[in-house]
Amino acid sequence: MELALAQRLQRIPPYPFREVAATKRRMLAEGIQLIDFGIGDPDMPTPQFIIEALYEAAKDPATHQYDETGLGIPEFKDAVAGFAKKRFGVEVSTENEIQSLLGSKEALVHIIWAYIDPSDVVLVPDPAYSVYKVQTTWCGGAAFPMPLSADRGFLPDLKAIPKPATKAAKLMFLNYPNNPTGAVAPVEFLEEAVKFALDNEILIVNDCAYSEVAYDGYRPASILEVDGAKDCCIEIHSLSKTFNMTGWRVAWAMGGAPFVAALSKCKANVDSGTFMAIQRAAAVALNRYEEWVPTLQAEYQKRRDLLVEGLQSLGCPIEKPRATFYVWVPCPQGYTSAGFAKDLMEKCHILAIPGGVYGEYGEGFVRMSLTIKSPDREASIRQAIENMKSGLSMTW
User: Fold this and answer.
1) pLDDT tens digits, residue range 52-72?
2) What is each CA distance from 168 to 11, 137, 143, 213, 365, in whole angstroms?
3) pTM
4) Domains located in the chain, CATH noted
5) pLDDT digits over 338-351, tens only?
């Protein structure tokens, strides 16, 4: 029996990273060993103290039932509030300004479901994580692109958004530190964004999943540090990248109470909350983040330096990103992003993601992740540079 797919599913393209994974499986089946700079999935284990906390929590039968709090168990919300205060200087109420999540991705989806009807407009950065645009389309909304260009430090030009789009917009997505570009947003830009949102009655959804993956002493800001932000902002954080917990599916949203309530209402009709033992372990992680995060940052910084300096030695005009574990590499002359990624794979046995999959304005770049599944990550990076040097003739 064949059934027609719902129109909402027919409107969206295949999830790009499933396509990447399929290509990788095919090449591995052919006996080709790839140096994988593809999907950004941390390659280091979850810290042992978090695993031990999960083990202890899972032994308590009380954690095996539904989390009936709706917003998250008290231990987790207290830890979130403590982290927000200590890390960003931001006060968030554990009563109505925090929502536990099954990973940050589901919140990005559900906040769109909560607010967007057919014909509503969402301001979406381009290039960007595909979920923002795809889920807007799924709801029948219109995703209006905000170009991110190198000459602006990959920050959108809010003044360049046409007035009709600004007037029609209900949501605006921001994502700093940024995937895929690795760009960061100064506080001055966040202040400008909050003023723009307040003036135009737009809800900002700030995807802040990479806030702790930063280098050279840089400390990314929370948009909630800006005066008035709770009147127009909700911010999404995750333990996935900070604590190598992608498979655990635990995160949180924080911000203005009405926006948290809308997200919570949507979630109440979709899921039944995060396993309470995982919430307890996540609370331990957040309470002890200062002893772990420097180790994480130091490891990725070594890899960043090796990769960027290696690319620079080939003539690539690239600077070291200040945050995320992504390197946004401009394509050599004569290459499209898909063509460069194809030659990297076939001639250099390097997997990188073509920038075009992140949107029209991602063309001309490939994304290389510092997460590498290899026994010796630094040796793999050096080998990748050698492969590029010998396998391709490139001029930037």
Assistant:
1) 999 999 999 999 999 999 999
2) 22, 16, 11, 35, 31
3) 0.94
4) 7-46+291-390 (3.90.1150.10), 62-290 (3.40.640.10)
5) 999 989 998 999 99
